[in-house]
Amino acid sequence: MSLLEYNEITEKKFIVLDGAPYEVISSHVFRKQQRKPVNATKLKNLMTGKVTEYSFHQSEKVDEAEIESREVKYLYNNRGEWWFCEASDPSKRFKVDEETVGPQGRFLKPNTVIEQLLFREQPMGFKFPITVELKVTEAPPNVKGDTATGGQKTVTLETGATINVPLFVNAGEIIKINTETGEYRERVGK
Questions:
Q1: Nearest to 19 by CA among 37, 31, 5, 1
Q2: How many domains does the chain divide into?
Q3: Once rounded to an integer, what is the mean pLDDT over residues 82-105?
Q4: Which pTM does this prediction carry?
Q5: How far apart are the C-alpha atoms of 1 and 140, rounded to whole Å?
């Protein structure tokens, strides 16, 4: 493991703090009046998902977390249990609870290969693709002149997830979605 100086603790880095792995969500190095510089960060605990704020001072150093990843294939979910298998060996199946998968899981199609993150051989979450293409299965009809509300309607996707899209999107079309925000990006085709 390598040691990071207080100003090297930047966004998207993984660190070990009090024996637990954290992802740095945001960081801002600043100087308060005549004092020494401080790095104010927001950290997400990769085991519990809890976000905390922490300030690193100039004299502090922290270990960079060695996060390993492996490819896994999503199979199905049932009653809050999400079933996966190793991408290279389908006989090695395992289940994960809904809380560990997180809200991005609603955009997973069966047989999708994603990365599972591991810290000291212990699973702690998944790395999802930033955008996915999904088919719209249900969409309410357009109402002529209904643009005063911003021109949005709620549609159902092939995974069962519902999102808001512009009025011109219809059932049967394929759209691109940002999995981090859950927002519509663009219409891809039919």
A1: 1
A2: 3
A3: 88
A4: 0.71
A5: 53
Please give the C-alpha separations between residue 10 and each of 61, 63, 64, 113, 182, in angstroms, as whole numbers: 13, 13, 11, 28, 25
Q: Which helix (H) or strand (E) holds 26?
A: strand 20-31
CATH of the domain at 107: 2.40.50.140
Rounded distance between C-alpha atoms, residue 157 and residue 134, angstroms: 6
Whose CA is closest to 179, among 124, 125, 123, 133?
133
95 neighbors 83 (Cβ within 8 angstroms): yes
Structural domain that includes position 116: 67-127
What is the torsional sign of CA 137, 141, 145, 150? Answer: negative
What is the three-class DSSP state of 190?
A: coil
DSSP 49: -
DSSP state of 7: G
Give yes or no for residue 27 having a pLDDT over 90.
yes
- Judge if 142 and 121 occupy the same domain: no
Euclidean distance between CA atoms 117 and 110, whole angstroms = 19
Structure tokens at 71: 């490819």
Percent of the chain surpassing pLDDT 90: 35
